[in-house]
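Dear support,

I submitted the protein below through the web form. The confirmation email said the job was done, but the results page showed an empty box. After a refresh the structure appeared. I'm attaching both so you can tell me whether what I see now is the final result or a partial one.
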Amino acid sequence: MSLNQIKIPLLEAAKWVSVILLLVFMFFQLSSLRTSSTDFDTMKEAVLASADLTPMVEADAQSLKRLYGLDGNDFEGVMLYYPTTNMGAEEILLVKLTATSQQEAVKTAMETRIANQMNSFDGYGITQYEMLEKAVVEVQGNYLLMVVAENPAPVRQAFLDAL
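What the results page shows now:
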């Protein structure tokens, strides 16, 4: 078998892999732009019903600005629960966007908050650090959810179900 005979099947395979990867990428891009008609109060209720709020307290607009650099007035709805003590890491942030163009800024703010918290707990807050490692950031069209908890899966599922 010559080198040219090997190159042709490899190029053909690479072409198909590229097409498949492009289709997968397009699917995820388009799905993140679909908006939900679920009103914010219904979504908030679903998320809160599935969460253990014991180690958290509801935040005000100043806390949202301080912790995330976000102005709640820029969005259709915002709900933030954060730790009652400095030694807690549990946190839930739910945001309903006014436009999907806000997705990246909010997602970045959520990821930055998680990274900052991980830096704070690195080396001494083992339980908190582990929670932050398995934190969920979910982007679904005009809704974003961030959950830091022992078990974030039920909150994430309630969010997805309410969409």
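Response: this is the final, complete result; the empty box was a page-load delay. The mean pLDDT is 90.
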